[in-house]
Amino acid sequence: MARAGLTAARLTEAAAQLADEVGLDRLTVSALARQFGVKDASLYSHIKNLRDLRVRIALLAAEEMSEKIALAVAGRAGKDALIAFADAYREFALAHPGRYAATQLQFDPEEVADSVGGRRGVELTLGVLRAYGLAEPDLTDAGRLLRAAFHGYIQLELNQGFAHSRPVQQSWSRSLDALHVALSNWPARPTGSTE
């Protein structure tokens, strides 16, 4: 019998908070059950397993992150939109490292088929990139460049990987300037290319 007050949504929110505190890799069903003062088995009426819980966290995080980014980029275009997007992305990841880690997991298509946040995140990314005059397949390539640059920077920052005395924020700002230049001067595909 399901414990009164426990719902999948409530468990997901608590698990997301716990992942932010201890790290997604340290999140367990047992730790979550302890927070609610119940046995592990009480949670299985609402979640399938740890993988299901992590997918739920990722879906929640994708919605939260895309909402933050959407608010940041509203009414902006070009470099202003790129900077607003990047700053919102980074702020979310640094404030919610466990949730952010969940968004980086590899998913089966059926696990995220109904992800409103995931679709919105893709649409926001494409909107920023289209303002640079890009079309497919360059949109995909540029999107991958942004994700790799943002994720790499954030992972290094989360792991205190920047030891130089120069402030990390200044390097972040200059990196965004460089990405703007790269997007503004995106190389043309070779003539006759079938890419």
From TrEMBL:
Keyword Transcription regulation: yes
InterPro entries: Homeodomain-like_sf, HTH_TetR, MT1864/Rv1816-like_C, Tet_transcr_reg_TetR-rel_C_sf
Gene Ontology MF terms: DNA binding
Residue span, HTH tetR-type domain: 5-65
SUPFAM superfamilies to which the protein is assigned, alphabetical: Homeodomain-like, Tetracyclin repressor-like, C-terminal domain
DNA-binding region: 28-47
Keyword Coiled coil in record: no
Name of the molecule in the record: TetR family transcriptional regulator
